[in-house]
UniProtKB/TrEMBL annotation:
GO terms for molecular function: DNA binding; DNA endonuclease activity; hydrolase activity; metal ion binding. This is CRISPR-associated endonuclease Cas1. Its cofactor is Mg(2+); Mn(2+). Gene3D superfamilies: CRISPR-associated endonuclease Cas1, C-terminal domain. The keyword Nucleotide-binding does not apply. Belongs to the CRISPR-associated endonuclease Cas1 family.
Amino acid sequence: MGWCTLIITKHSKVSFAAGQVLVKTVSDTYQIPLSDINILLIESTQAVLTSFVVQKLIKNDVRIIFCDENYLPVGEIAGYYSHNKRVRNLEQQVNWSQERKEQLWQQLITLKMLGQQQVLAELGLDKDDALTPHILQVLVGDSSNREAVVARLYFTRLFGKGFSRRDDSNLINAHLNYGYQIILAATAREIQAAGYLTEFGIHHQSYENALNLASDIMEPLRPVIDRVTWQFIKRAELDFSPERRLELVDVLNFNVRFKGHETLVTGVISEILRDSLQFLNYQGDELPTLPEWKLEI
């Protein structure tokens, strides 16, 4: 499995030869080993991909993501066959118990809220400790919707009282949405590689969302993107430039502490997914144990 994200930002032809992905621009030709690539991100509307390179990327479980003229991801290509036990896995997936899904969602959303609390504390923006009472009140399935309450408290402290996540014209949201999509795509790739459908989530159940399960699993990593976006503002670099987008993509390679050890953000995604699947698929006589997660971002 690859480790790097290849980003196409200008007029290019992308092809394949002798185990290498070739990117030919007007002035240069670049060679990248196919085995190194995790995600191919097409930002330019003037990029051309050969069918041969697309086939090779798909067979190597590389996620191919296409962006619109505003550089926001709008779609992707994923392969049909990425796991030899896919049919068995899908049978398990459609039979996951509602009780376990709601228990797992409680864990995931609590981990995200703790991450949001970490960000505010690190930046000195939560002197009244407003999030803690709500984090402690998260019920199974988050039936009291503490996630929404915490989100309102969190984002207004992080980005100001006038900030709204629904404002598509806000540059802050452009950076957040781009970063979230990068993590979403990396999560979807892990799910696909594990032999499960991204469409069937544990909490997200939208008929219009083909990445419901990825949307669930990625939740604890959102605060990493939030903090990077805040740093752009602090540095007066909130410009959605190619440099800023590269920094957001590089979040996948950030070092964090998870379950007491150092790992990359991509490693956290893999571990959360693995622990979640073990919990959901457990077939023993005794009750399964919920994953115990601690994430320091």
